[in-house]
User: What shape does this take?
Amino acid sequence: MRKKKNIKKYAKAFGKKEKVLNYTSNTYQLTRPNKVGAVMALIRECQPKEFKDWENFYFKKAFTKTKTPTKVTQEALDELGERLYCKITEIVIPEWTTAFQSLTVQDCKDYIYQVTLVRTFDGFLLEKSVINDGIAKVFPEVEFEESEPELDHAGDIDYLGKIGNKAFGIQIKPLSANANFGNYKISERMQASFLNFEEKFGGKVFVLFSKRTGNKKDIVNKNILEDIKKEIDRLKKIN
Assistant: This one.
């Protein structure tokens, strides 16, 4: 039996610091393409065998994904690191310290109850409203149905929009008071799930962000409706 080849890891381990570094970097979008360039696209273009090859290629080719792209340099990455340190020491640590000092057993009990029951119910109502009061009225020719539990778990799909024998997927995300859909980053696992869905049903998956406006749930990223319309037209042609 052939032994699996061990893949050498080059990344530095930050131990218990990793969580706070990760949280702060993601919260303030310090490693997004608009700051460090499209790194996955670049490394696939490079196809490096050694880390040094990749490092040289990156600093030669990397530009920020902005309206006016700028060259990404070691100095630019260092500056992002300094900003990360400032965010942690000036904002995150004081906020977390206050939270730790005021945390009670009742907070923890309430949190578990809220996540398990109340937030699940809110999310269920949100999904229903976004589909029935929103997107279904925009695309009346599409039959929307809730995904099967197995598909929802495996593919992160809340609803299917059926076009003949094809379908596109809808994932619905609530927009919290301190979040912005521009911060949302699809994980590699979700990307794989979306691709699996597309292979099975023929259509793409769209992520809708919603917030409460009065007694209604409104779609925040309304520009995605045009993309959905194009996908519906495409699926109609290949049915």
